[in-house]
């Protein structure tokens, strides 16, 4: 099984007014993130607005990212559905398009019990030969992954990782105690990544890493080298960016931040609202504080600083 670790930015999905993927913009973002040292790319995560895209748009996003990555870093593509049949079809499509792993999300209208949850994720894993990352985000999911379900799924051969966005670092420690010898744990930016690394995490998959990749990679390396004092100093500085993003719509914040950095990614897909004037000011201030705006590096308006 492939070894995933480090910083995996959750990519945005830039869509123009006709519904087409802005492939050149997305490819440029991927190339710049790789140059900044990220360890992988994750299209169709929450920041990628997967719930607002149709199948054709999702496929085009994955295809664009895989082509841009050129095997320099692994591409772990998001799969999300309410039915097993749809999820399996999406996973197989991602594998055909060249993805290196699957980020598996479960959508639900009616609550699903543990047996149904386990059946859903197991079916995805058995449908492909790729490593599968379980994704749990109880703030947005009708049916969450319970600890007993995680324990059962950790024994499925190619389910090798879990990304937990619960904001509960204690839950991550419970997962590590339960299945840490079989499954690597990634956090979200909602956790304090340095704390997650301290207790045994592999890294984090998060939207804010799109706009602060160099600082995110530096934080990961400091944690990996156990230079905790330096790591926490940087973590405190980066946390202001997380706080700004937590106050507003995440996709709007990441897209707004990337626009400020010179990427023509556009606004979130309706009915989501664009970032408000207050939100733009908050994001600009957070980016300024970490030196992530082009003007601060003497670059032109269209040259992004990442």
Give me a quick take on this structure.
The protein has 306 residues and is an alpha/beta fold.
Task: Characterize the structure shown.
The chain is α/β, with parallel strands linked by helices. The protein has a single domain (6-226), classed as TIM Barrel (Alpha-Beta Barrel), CATH 3.20.20. The chain has helices spanning 23-35, 55-69, 84-96, 114-127, 147-153, 169-179, 193-198, 213-224, 228-247, 250-260, 277-289; strands at 6-9, 76-81, 101-106, 132-136, 159-164, 184-187, 203-206. It has a 7-stranded parallel sheet with strand order 1-7-6-5-4-3-2. Helix 4 (114-127) links the parallel strand 3 and strand 4. The longest helix is centred in the last third of the chain and has 20 residues, at 228-247. 49% of the residues are buried.
Could you tell me the mean pLDDT? 92
CATH class identity = Alpha Beta
Calculate the terminal CA-CA distance, rounded to whole Å.
31 Å
Question: Total number of β-strand segments?
Answer: 7
Global structural class: alpha/beta
Profile the largest sheet: 7 strands, parallel
What key phrases describe this protein's structure?
7 strands, 11% strand, single chain, alpha/beta, seven-stranded parallel sheet, TIM Barrel, 306 residues
